[in-house]
Amino acid sequence: MADVRLTGVEKAYGDIRILHGIDLEIRDGEFMVFVGPSGCGKSTLLRSIAGLEEITGGELTIGGRVVNDVPPSARGIAMVFQSYALYPHMNLFDNMAFGLKLAKVPKAEIETAVRNAAKILHIEHLLDRKPKDLSGGQRQRVAIGRAIVRKPEVFLFDEPLSNLDAALRVRMRYEFAKLHEDLKTTMIYVTHDQVEAMTLADRIVVLSAGKVEQVGSPLELYEHPRNLFVAGFIGSPKMNFIEGELVAIEAGHVDVKLSGGNVVLQARVDGSAAQVGDKVTLGVRPEHIRTEGQGNQLQSTVAFVESLGGTTFAYCPYPGVEEALTCQFEGRNGADRLRSGQALNLHLPAEALYVFDADGKALRRLAAPELSA
Ligand SMILES: Nc1ncnc2c1ncn2[C@@H]1O[C@H](COP(=O)(O)OP(=O)(O)OP(=O)(O)O)[C@@H](O)[C@H]1O
Ligand SMILES: [Mg+2]
Asked: Considering its fold, how many domains does the chain have in total?
């Protein structure tokens, strides 16, 4: 087990700078997840930690040891990639044993390590099979098994589940959580998948264009995104944004006049650093919009409804909103009877609203106990 520290880590290919001074501390035994849009540098960062890419600035330590010039094989890490190339002509046992054989580990020790990994991953009964005779999920387990037998100090996973179908992803997600619970080894995991990030991570790192936007627990990021980028990135479906202007700042709340029309909404945020007249963006998550409630209302006409049975999404256009407000209603309490063309009163609870200044920085949200419960 080991912690991983990055201090001012830079990566450039010639003149093209990919990572811009990354500072991060990944704690010993932590499950850390990297998320961010395609091309933001998640894989580059992971490969830099692995030593598959040489960093062009800064310092990287694993378990307190500076590893900038240490080759990948001596860093105490094991990496699992999205495309888990197994050797097709070898059975599972040999696929998992291969690295240990190369390292001239004694036979009995290899036997124990492989059987132990196979047991953890529930593939003991498959050890004689060749990869072509396995399902996708089983192949993925072999790739993880190959990493486990090396007893690394740190596991690195680059979108390990993205080749699997939806049902299998759910099962493997659970397996990853259990694997971390059993091994308690430091894990760094890259994913595009919101749910994977929220459910697996002790902490999430949100990256954008080679920079860290925010680091925090899943709920911290959900409830207190530092800026518009993180607010729009964490949460699914995405947070709604409405343009507006600050018209009043009081202790405990601010009033925002929406740019389309005369509606003023109150938000429970700390406006002490802002000024009346400031342009702001109001944020509200689809799951926090209601059809009933006192005050903070706006009128819309439903443009489109998606009924998934338990959950209903209504898309409601409003001036100053790109496309439409996405509203999410749970259960069958009438929401399933919504129709396009219908007029709808929307209630946006003051404690559910986020406010961002003209630079996209979030005004601090004040306690929202009913949301954080
Ligand atoms: N060898 C290279 N030379 C120049 N640019 C590169 C090289 N390798 C990667 N890049 C660039 O670095 C940036 C980051 O790539 P990276 O693969 O880390 O993104 P990512 O966040 O993992 O994206 P994805 O989610 O699509 O996997 C991209 O803009 C990519 O084009
Ligand atoms: Mg990638």
From this structure: 2
The overall average pLDDT reported for the chain is: 92
Best mutation site among 33, 40, 47, 207 for ligand 1 pocket (most ligand atoms within 8 Å of CB) = 40
pLDDT digit string, tens, across residues 321-338: 888 999 999 887 667 788
* pLDDT over threshold 70, residue 371: no
Q: Based on C-alpha coordinates, what's the Rg of the chain?
A: 24
Q: Note down the domain range covering 128.
A: 4-228
Mean pLDDT value of segment 251-261: 91
pLDDT in tens, 88-129: 999 999 999 999 999 899 999 999 999 999 988 889 999 999
Rounded to whole angstroms, how far apart are CA atoms 289 and 345?
A: 10
Q: Report pTM.
A: 0.92
Q: Domain with 290 in it: what CATH number?
A: 2.40.50.140
Residue 367: band (very low, low, confident or very high) from pLDDT cuts 50, 70, 90:
low
Residue among 317, 321, 323, 326 nearest 299 (CA)? 317
The atom number, within ligand 1, closest to the CA of 210 reads: 14
**Sheet strand arrangement including 304-307:** 304-307, 311-316, 325-330
CATH number assigned to the domain comprising residue 146 = 3.40.50.300
- Could you tell me if 216 and 296 lie in one domain? no
Residue from 9, 17, 33, 43 to probe ligand 1 pocket by mutation (most atoms less than 8 Å from CB): 43
